[in-house]
Design goal:
This protein is an all-alpha fold and 408 residues long. Helices cover 85% and strands 0% of the residues. The longest helix has 33 residues.
Amino acid sequence: MRLGRDFGRLWTAATVSTLGDGITYTAGPLLAATLTRDPLLIGVVGAASFAPWILVGLVSGALVDRLDRRRLMWTVDLGRAAVLAGIATAVLAGWASIPLLAAGAFLLGVGQTFFDSAAQAAIPTIVGREPDRLAAANGRLLGAQTIGQQFAGPPAGGVLFTLAPWLPYAVDAVSFVGSSILLMRIRGRFTVGRTGPRPSLRADIAGGLRWLFRHRLLRGLALVTGVLNLVFMATEVVLVLVAQERLGLGGIGFGVLLTGSAAGALAGSLTAARLARRLGAGPAYVVSVGLLAASLIGLGLTTLPWVAGAALAVIGYAVTLGNVILQSLRQEVTPPELLGRVVSAYRLIGMGAIPVGALAGGLVGRIDLRLPYLVGAVLVALTGVAAARRLRGGAIEAARAAAAAAVA
């Protein structure tokens, strides 16, 4: 399916910038480990990148609905390039420290809250609001993210860090400059028209939250996403211990194991639109949740590396399939003038569950490393039943029809 030249520019920009993200995804922990051996301090750097979704996510969504979304994206990318260039300079000069890395991670995370909300809100303007086109666009963007952040970027980051610790950050800065230039070339108007006096920022945020929580379908799916993210993070934090103690893998083996998840995610991005069209969006989403529950059981019980790799591939596939379906649905049924705020509110629920999941996984894993997976599988299965009930009776088709009638 051809999605147009402007989508091609957006896709290329996303590919370039996510490749840079994949590079620093590896280089960041390596640099932090040269500065401290305290796991808590290293964890602070990671937590700093998630904190903006909780602290400023709703504000960024409200501003996305007030500003030109295309201009906001390329401006944010230039800002992130400046932050990365500053970190590269500090590392080169010998000024690197944990507080500096945490501050940099926080600023980059703030930029991500703006960019992600603006990008998801801009996609319907670029490709239209037809379900097939939105699913295809979201699938291709998630595919680019998988290739950059999980396949190509991490090994490149390791090599660049070995050459010079500052080099990965400099390369990532250049990637954001390239992304910004590409985004500048996208045509069209990306400012949402308003009638009447502009309300306060607080009123805008409240309006987005109110709309989401009054929308029965999206409200329920946001809570489902929160539970799934909690389980995913609870199992993610103990995976390295499972690989070492139950699968008998070393560092290289653990790296190879993770490619299973990346391979599954790439397959999901390539087939999600077709599967959603064939089964229907609701049944396809329920299938994704069922696959996730089954694969968690397999991963929790096995001691065979190849079985664990296959289970991770299924997890990657299921998560990507579900993300494509939910992102496309959200873009279809949300009014254009509210899309930035609804995306940020929706993601606040999902991102807010991540630190809770990390803590829960660590605590339960102290008892037995299998428990996060087995308990998680039960929670996912129950969540799948709840999702199936919420999606039955043509709920998605009814939401689409209501959205189309509101636009008309």
